[in-house]
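Before a colleague's protein record goes any further, I have to sign it off. My question to you is simply how this chain folds and whether the tokens agree. I do not need a full report, just your reasoning and any doubts. This is what I was given:
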Amino acid sequence: MTRPTVVVLHDNEEWLPPFRRAFEAEGVALEPWHLGERAIDLDGVAPDAVVWSRLSASAHTRGVPHAFDTATAILSWAEAQGRRVVNGSRVAALEVSKVRQHALLRAAGLDVPRTIAATSDAALAAAARQIGSPFITKHNRGGKGLGVRRFDTPEELDAALAAGELERPVDGIALVQELLVGRDASITRAEFVGGRFRYAVRVDTSQGFELCPADACRVPGADDAAEAEPASLFRLRPEVTAEHPLIRDLEALLAREGVEIAGVEFIETIDGRTVPYDINTNTNYSPDVEAELGERGAAEAVATFLAALARDQVALRAA
């Protein structure tokens, strides 16, 4: 019998070791396909495997500028041949577009940050005057906090644009967004595996934005009080459970959109709002949180979920 196999599409080999170990423990082969180094025989047969996309919106910052196009080409090819795909071509489009994420979150009736998308410097400057101060800018195709910067007045943005200080978004779309002030210097990231809530992580942002794996929580210049430096930037939030109203809403949204593995970031603001703002369909897990969890971690849960799908495929072939 053919060994159950999962093909993983990725742009960074350094992300794979925890998954390699977890898949080995499951007895399932993990076959990496780097999105910068592929040839796709469109007349050939797609791999007899589960295809899992770990496309990252920030792939272009790691020397893989066309990762999205390559991923969607492979995913569309595999989907057309009836392969089981996890986080498929529609999800890839969600990963690389904060505009699309915002639209889906708003359509689901969730509280989202006031946001304007702009495709030129003039439009960006006009949006700053419309959105209200203070505000932040960010890239539509983000990840790693690309383009996130705080401005206290539209004139500050004007000066930055005139000086050429703003990094240009790779897809030409920049966002102007209201500045959300958290009740403390943190955001929360809720992890989902197999479409189900796994756990929530508090991400400390008191040391500055660059250390935060979120997208728009604490930015340089934010004037809320910083906490003392913690032992770890990441901490489990056991009080956030599957029964939390936002978690229930997010599970329903992810199911509608076919998102099976994801991390969704939200902020609890000083004025009592709970605001989701970023859907990450490529997620990495904190070893500190995994150790705190005291049970099988999220990487193992991902491997178990995908291994079951791969075994089902082998069983179907055998039948």
Remarks:
- The first strand starts at residue 5 and ends at 10.
- The domain at 181-294 is CATH 3.30.470 (D-amino Acid Aminotransferase; Chain A, domain 1).
